[in-house]
Structure formats: C-alpha cells, structure tokens
Structure to design on (247 residues):
C-alpha cells in the first residue's frame, strides 16, 4: 500500500499539466464540477487520523480517482484503508468506503465559466469492503454550486441504499473563501440520517483550508468534528489534489 501511494504521487507530479487542480478534499460533500475530457484527477489523503469514544484509527490512504471520459461526465472510484490502533472489539485492519460512481454536470454555470448556478448529479454503486462493510448498495446525490466574489457555496442532497439495506438520507453544505486567494478558508456542515432496522443520526462540521500551490497542485487540511448518535468523533485530514492527462 505504501509503494502504491508513492507511485501515484510520483506519476501525478511528473505528468501534471497546466489543468487546474480543483481540490474538493477535505470534504465529505462535493461540487458541481467534473474532470476535463481525458483528464485524471487524484484526490489523496496519504495519512489521516480519527478518534471516537471507542477507537483510534489511522486512515492510510484515503483516495478518490476522477476520470473525465466524455464532456461533463466523469468516472469516480474511491475507498480508504483503516488501521485501528485501539478497539473495543479488537477489529483488524480494513478497506472500506469502496464505491464506483458516475458524476455528470446537468447545467453549466459558474464552475464551468458560464453564469448562474452549476447543477450536477452523481449516482453510484457501494462495493463490499475487506473485513467490514459486506454487501452492495446504491447512492444518488444532487449538487448545486454557485460562485460569488466573496466565495463559493456547494449544496448537496441525496440518499443511499446502504450495504445492509437501510436508507441513509444526506444533506450537506460547503462554504469556501474567495477562489482567487492562494490560501482560502473552507467549512462544511453535513447531516446524515439512517432509517430502517439500524437508526443512526450523524451531524458533522469541518473547518480547514485549501492552498493552491499552482495550477497543477492543491494541498488541503481540515479538522472534522462529528456526533454519531450524540457520541463525539474527531478526524484530522490532510492531503492533495492533482490533475494530469495520462495520454
């Protein structure tokens, strides 16, 4: 796994072009934009950390691959490795959050150089994990983004049929500082409610920053505080987003 991360970083930095890397790390929600045609965008969190009331976990890596295969549509592959440091049930290392999605822009707007809100949708299949998250699920999300001189807002709303066949309802909002700032502050508020046999309420808030190193590379850092059925959970996130054309 470490060798894979090193190879991905090396390829990304070696072959990056002048395409702009739009970081949508370190968020759980997303924006109404996709990678350019024949462009590969990699969002990578090499090492992150999460602490809850019963477990301390190292996340390495958290990854999202976005490939623009036609105009306004991209293929998204994501997942993350988790390594518990302490656990009440002595859980082993696991590979979770695996999914394959299709994301498309339905209306070109501010994020595509046009005027008005950008509108997108993302549909996907939730895949089984390793040592956790068995079974398949489905997801759908709608995204609306708009940019002003003071900053950018992204609104997400959607639902999942979870791997254990419960329904998970999702709503989230990202607020960013001015896009032309080299380092812009960011924040996210997100709520998830799982209904069915297993009922779960998750409210989370994230604050952080995105540093646009150049048109090829962006770095990010964030602190996420969540309450899962009122139990606190803290996560430290840091990573990068880089875009290049494999051809």
């Amino acid at each position: 796994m470490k060798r894979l991360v090193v190879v991905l970083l090396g390829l990304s930095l070696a072959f990056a072009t002048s395409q702009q890397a739009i970081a949508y790390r370190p968020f759980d929600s997303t924006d109404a934009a996709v990678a350019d045609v024949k462009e590969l965008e990699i969002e990578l969190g090499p090492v992150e950390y999460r602490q809850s009331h019963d477990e301390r976990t190292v996340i390495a890596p958290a990854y999202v691959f976005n490939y623009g295969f036609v105009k306004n549509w991209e293929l998204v592959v994501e997942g993350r490795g988790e390594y518990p440091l302490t656990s009440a049930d002595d859980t082993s290392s696991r590979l979770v959050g695996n999914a394959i999605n299709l994301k498309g822009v339905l209306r070109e707007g501010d994020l595509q150089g046009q005027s008005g809100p950008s509108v997108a949708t993302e549909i996907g299949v939730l895949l089984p994990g390793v040592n956790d998250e068995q079974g398949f699920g489905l997801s759908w999300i709608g995204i609306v983004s708009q940019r002003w001189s003071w900053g950018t807002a992204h609104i997400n709303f959607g639902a999942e049929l979870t791997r254990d066949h419960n329904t998970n309802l999702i709503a989230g909002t990202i607020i960013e500082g001015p896009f032309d700032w080299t380092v812009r502050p960011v924040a996210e508020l997100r709520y998830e409610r799982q209904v069915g046999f297993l009922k779960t309420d998750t409210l989370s808030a994230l604050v952080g920053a995105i540093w646009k190193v150049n048109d090829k590379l962006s770095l990010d850092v964030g602190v996420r505080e969540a309450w899962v059925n009122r139990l606190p959970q803290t996560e430290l996130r840091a990573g990068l987003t880089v875009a290049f054309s494999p051809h």
